[in-house]
Amino acid sequence: EIINCDNKNLILLNIPRASRVLKPIYTGQNPLTGTYLRYHDSDVKAKDEIIKHMLADAINESNDTVILEGFDIDDIDTQSFQAYRNIYKSTKSNHPWIELDDKEFLIQLGGYKKDRKNSIEGLTLAGLLMFGKQRSILDGLSNYLVDYQEQTENVEDRWIDRITTDGTWSGNLFEFSQKVYRKLTSDLKVPFNLKDSFQRVDETNIHEAIREALVNTLIHANYNGRIGIQVIKHPKGYSFRNPGLLRVSKEDAFRGGHSDCRNKTLQKMFQYIGMGEQAGSGFPKMLRAWMEQHWQYPYIDENIQLETTTLFMPTISLFPQEIQNALEKSNVDMITPQVTPQVTPQVTPQVLSLLEKIDSENTRDEMMQKLNLKDRKNFRENYINEALKNGLISLTIPDKPQSSKQKYKLTNIGKDILKKNSK
Hints:
Elements: E1 2-5, E2 8-11, H1 31-34, E3 36-39, E4 42-45, H2 48-59, H3 78-91, H4 102-109, E5 112-115, E6 120-123, H5 125-131, H6 134-140, E7 146-150, E8 161-164, H7 173-185, E9 193-195, E10 199-201, H8 205-219, E11 229-234, E12 237-243, H9 250-255, H10 264-272, H11 282-292, E13 299-303, E14 308-314, H12 321-329, H13 349-357, H14 364-371, H15 376-389, E15 393-395, E16 408-410, H16 412-422
Parallel strand pairs: 7-11
Antiparallel strand pairs: 1-2, 3-4, 5-6, 7-8, 9-10, 11-12, 12-14, 13-14, 15-16
Helix pairs in contact: 7-8, 8-10, 8-11, 13-15
């Protein structure tokens, strides 16, 4: 693509994301010494750990099928496993697996496997993660952590509700998913609907979208990474962070129709009990639910240095407050998706000036200096908070708002605002 800028022609090259089977891309003969990652406008030497994870992703179609030597049925949390079996039975009442004993049932799920060639058998990584006892999981994966937090708008409150691997429950993925899904959806309104004239439907598209986001976080995670799973519920939205970078491009992820799940056995285990859709349909359903509510669109952030992927799902309206009020008064429930993207939040001159000064990522002090401002309270209330409230900027360290290393960057909505105001 050729564009004209200040009477000079610039050529824009769109370089597609390399397939995971081709990574790492490196110079020289040794990937451990010749692999570099693009971080904003710089190329940085990739850490050995990240390179090893790339090599593992290139080789393994699914990471969770490996047999863990020394781990067997005794490492399974019985209460969690039976709860899963009860749900499975209720959703597949006539399936022949229902009559199997625990070990055979686990084998059919892919949670226990025999390697006849090498004469070994035991729990797979999927079996340990999904149903294991906390101590057993930590014995197999020393960095394992799952963490749910409910936060308030007061940045001084770390959290008001939390579920984490603290020894008070099993700590496995099945129980975590059950506990957290109930927490995430506890405040959602459920309209009274009947399916097929007799079966009550107790879910909305928002419920489905949140469930998809939660399951995607668990099945796409790299459990050999240094950082754990983190799910945050906030008055202005939800965030879902998992260790591991995307195995497809962001565009392909949101477009749907193609999935490259890192843990396919876990994916099947969740699908068997009605959690998780078929490959590639999750993100489009999230977008549909958010568009129906006229909320700012979900977006994904990949942190190359931490090797994490975070899905942000804001619950901030795309409409200015007066339009929201008018819609409520007129009982308008739906606006066509073609109209929604054209509606943008109101932007004050102060906020617009802030957006214009953000260069990649900036600290508060850097932005105040660029704007020649001295009053920190004025800057916080009329610039930063307004931009955050409207989803125009985001934190680079969202789980630690008060971090001394905190910086701010433009969101896709913020970039769109700048483009429209520069025309």
